[in-house]
Amino acid sequence: DAKTTQPNSMESNEEEPVHLPCNHSTISGTDYIHWYRQLPSQGPEYVIHGLTSNVNNRMASLAIAEDRKSSTLILHRATLRDAAVYYCILLLWANAGKSTFGDGTTLTVKP
Amino acid sequence: EAQVTQNPRYLITVTGKKLTVTCSQNMNHEYMSWYRQDPGLGLRQIYYSMNVEVTDKGDVPEGYKVSRKEKRNFPLILESPSPNQTSLYFCASSLFSGDSPLHFGNGTRLTVT
């Protein structure tokens, strides 16, 4: 099964950019790459998703490698509220609805 | 307000006593899914449903049952709970398309003694 690999933890300073990497070397052509984040005692919250092209929204940017085997979530200016666990997941719609979560990256933002 | 509602938020029960955790969404989503989250293990998919009367096993289905009789509801049933099912459970829904985000509920913390 396709799966994702992320670093366990990363640190950033407030108001600096953060690049969170994710490897998904076994991704198939129809798998969408999604990113979610989870604050303590809450459910995961959608951040951004993409298939092949880089994507931007008000929360973040998603850079997808040309071979799609890796992606990077970019927070342009980290704030203390961005401290969370970030999950990179593949939605395997070609596999009839299975989803695979990685272990997530715990982002610490220092003031 | 578009949302996924899980009940109860907290549940403490004893081994073997059947329980149901409810999940309801008001977005007319075809796809619904249950996950459990344990320390150090991330989120693992239990069961999912692509539409009414269509369900399938995720990665950790043992000890759980689900049903999808209506589009909006996707209850998780533990017929004989055991302590190893103590966990944090999340329900999620989405349009059935990889191009649509998953919407998660706020979670149910289950303790089985």
Concise summary:
The complex is a heterodimer of chains A (111) and B (113). Chain A has 111 residues and is mainly β. Chain A has no helices and 10 strands.
Structure write-up:
The complex is a heterodimer of chains A (111) and B (113). Chain A is mostly beta strands. Chain A has no helices and ten strands. Chain A has strands at residues 9-13, 18-23, 32-38, 45-50, 55-56, 61-64, 70-75, 84-92, 98-101, 105-110. In chain A, strands 1, 3, 4, 8, 9 and 10 form a six-stranded mixed beta sheet that branches. Chain A is globular. In chain A, 40% of the residues are buried. The mean pLDDT of chain A is 90. With 113 residues, chain B is an all-beta fold. In chain B, the strands form two sheets. In chain B, strands 2, 4, 5, 6, 9, 10 and 11 form a seven-stranded mixed beta sheet that branches. In chain B, a hairpin with a 2-residue loop joins strand 5 (42-51) and strand 6 (54-57). Chain B is globular and about 40 Å long. Chain B starts with a strand and ends with a strand. The mean pLDDT of chain B is 94. Chain A binds chain B through residues 30-32, 34, 36, 41-46, 49, 51, 87, 91, 93, 96-104, and chain B through 4, 31, 33, 35, 40-45, 48-50, 56, 58-59, 90, 92, 96-99, 101-107.
Give the arrangement of secondary structure elements.
The complex is a heterodimer of chains A (111) and B (113).
Chain A: E1 9-13, E2 18-23, E3 32-38, E4 45-50, E5 55-56, E6 61-64, E7 70-75, E8 84-92, E9 98-101, E10 105-110
Parallel strand pairs in A: 1-10
Antiparallel strand pairs in A: 2-7, 3-4, 3-8, 5-6, 6-7, 8-9, 8-10
Chain B: E1 4-7, E2 10-13, E3 19-25, E4 31-38, E5 42-51, E6 54-57, E7 65-66, E8 76-78, E9 87-94, E10 103-104, E11 108-112
Parallel strand pairs in B: 2-11
Antiparallel strand pairs in B: 1-3, 3-8, 4-5, 4-9, 5-6, 7-8, 9-10, 9-11
